[in-house]
Amino acid sequence: MFVALEPRRLYRQVADRIRALIEAGELVVGERLPAERDLAERFGVSRPTVREALIVLEVEGYIQIRMGSGVYIAQKPASTPAILPADEVDGPFEILQARCIVESAIAEEAARHATPQGIARLDEMLARMEQAVEQPERAIAADLAFHSTIADMIGNSALRHFISLLIDKRTSPYFQKLASYFEGPHTWQRAVEEHKAIRDAIAAGDPSAAREAMRRHLTLAQKRFSESFGEEPARED
Predict the structure, then answer these.
(1) pLDDT the model gives residue 86
(2) Looking at 27-41, 99-113, 216-230, which range is the least confident one?
(3) Domain that holds residue 48
(4) CA distances (Å), 194 to each of 104, 143, 215, 233, in order?
(5) Cα separation, 116 vs 187, whole angstroms
(6) CATH number assigned to the domain comprising residue 16
(7) Residue, of 119 and 25, whose pLDDT is higher
(8) pLDDT, tens digit, for every residue of 133-170?
(9) Mean of the per-residue pLDDT values for the chain?
(10) What total number of domains does the chain contain?
(11) Of 235, 231, 232, 233, the residue nearest 66 (C-alpha)
(12) Same domain, 99 and 209
């Protein structure tokens, strides 16, 4: 029933394969899917890839993810909404990895160009995040503004545009659905503390510390996003 996939657009392929099994009646309403780790082994992909595929299928209405219980086949939807554009191949974990690589370098350079006005702007965004840890939409807006402000410090419009393309993907319905499984006041508070470390390193004019603080923040963000659906807690090493 489940076979290994070619290493191309993997999470989309996993979603397509499971969807086809459901539509063919090989997976029936109410049936519980194998555990995430088992699906990963059978498809020959990583667990985060399986997780991304399951999010697509849940938003489409094909499955229900019940925290602490498992993933179940849902009543077949009357219509399937478009979750991602046909040519959209970047999954959340790829986006976060790209941000970690790019934004670490940006933070390093920003530490060389920091101004009192730029630091004041970072402080403003931090204050907004702290006030909005229980209001996800406001917290996300302040979070994205914080990262954008760091890119702005360098004064390179091309770089600012490029990083905006990555950061803006965080507001997609699919990305937000994935976040809904672990995000809450406690995770936003962690993000605030991680942002403070980035801010302090930039304000100190320490490029190496700024790079490391950003790398650590986005690495931990990847871990939080890759947390299993109630199976295993993400660890912060």
Answers:
(1) 47
(2) 216-230
(3) 10-73
(4) 13, 11, 10, 19
(5) 29
(6) 1.10.10.10
(7) 119
(8) 888 889 999 999 999 999 999 999 999 899 988 888 87
(9) 84
(10) 2
(11) 231
(12) yes
- pLDDT score for 223: 83
Decide the pairing of beta strands 63-66 and 70-73.
Answer: antiparallel
Do 182 and 144 belong to one domain? yes
3-state secondary structure the chain: CCCCCCCCCHHHHHHHHHHHHHHCCCCCCCCECCCHHHHHHHHCCCHHHHHHHHHHHHHHCCEEEECCCEEEECCCCCCCCCCCCCCCCCCHHHHHHHHHHHHHHHHHHHHHHCCHHHHHHHHHHHHHHHHCCCCHHHHHHHHHHHHHHHHHCCCCHHHHHHHHHHHHHHHCHHHHHHHCCCCCHHHHHHHHHHHHHHHHHHHCCCHHHHHHHHHHHHHHHHHHHCCCCCCCCCCCC
Answering whether pTM is above 0.70, one says yes
Block residue for tokens 């931990």: 220
Three-point CA angle 191, 83, 134, nearest 5°: 30
Residue 115: the pLDDT is 95
Local confidence band at 89 (pLDDT 50, 70, 90 cut-offs): low
Per the CB < 8 A criterion, the answer to whether 163 and 151 are in contact is yes
Which residues, listed in sequence order, are joined to residue 73 by a DSSP beta bridge? 63
What per-residue confidence (pLDDT) applies to 81? 55
Task: Give the CATH number of the domain where residue 183 resides.
Answer: 1.20.120.530
What are the CB-based long-range contacts (under 8 Å, 24+) for 129-133?
A: 129/188, 129/191, 129/192, 129/195, 130/192, 132/188, 133/185, 133/188, 133/189, 133/192
In this structure, the answer to whether residues 150 and 195 fall within a common structural domain is yes
Residues 130 and 190 in one domain: yes
Q: Within a domain: residue 64?
A: yes
